[in-house]
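Dear colleagues,

For the upcoming journal club I promised to circulate an example of a predicted protein-ligand complex. I picked one with zinc ion because it came up in last month's discussion. The inputs are reproduced below in full, followed by the predicted structure.
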Amino acid sequence: MKIIGVGRNYKAHAGELHNPIPTEPILFLKPDTALLKNNDDFYYPDFTKDIHYEIELVIKISKEGKFISEKYADNYYDEIGIGIDFTARDLQDKAKAQGLPWTLAKGFNHSAPISEFVSKKNWPNIQSIPFGLKQNDVWKQQGNTADMVFPVPTLIHYISTFITLKKGDLIFTGTPAGVGSIARGDVLEGYLDNQKLLTCAIK
Ligand code: ZN
């Protein structure tokens, strides 16, 4: 399986990092070794001094498809979840300054904690779901999928034009404003519509 991330898909987050609003989706990949499941602990690695949390709605692809039209995109996923796109911001800033890829800043081991997945049927409209992140019991990110620059059908259409989507692939759909640094001892909690689905302790 593969993990596809979407950069700058919420205007307020693009703004807080002083990035322009994109005119086409900005995509990156994380390897399957980035996954961190079952609310396991995250061990802070030595190669970075500034990992940021980014809470994101995650789409789990349910069948193979390419050149998927926006109209039929809903047929390609049944379940959604919540995930954290851990980003080594110091490595990313260095890469950005040199025009180099974000691979290591985004794809390091366990940089993608994910929750259990739940049926999308719980929500009549994928573009109207509140979600958020608490750090040590304090709300840090509270977003709504209504604010995506590129909504889910557009992402599925765009990605599948270039890259075949397969069953089990995950799409991290971008983070709202409020990103920040993590430290050893932190507990992060991810919420999908007031339901806590994800816990990640930083060791
Ligand atoms: Zn992200």
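Two points we might discuss: Residues 5, 54, 56, 85, 172, 174-175 surround zinc ion (CB under 6 Å). The longest strand covers residues 77-84.

See you all on Thursday,
B. R.
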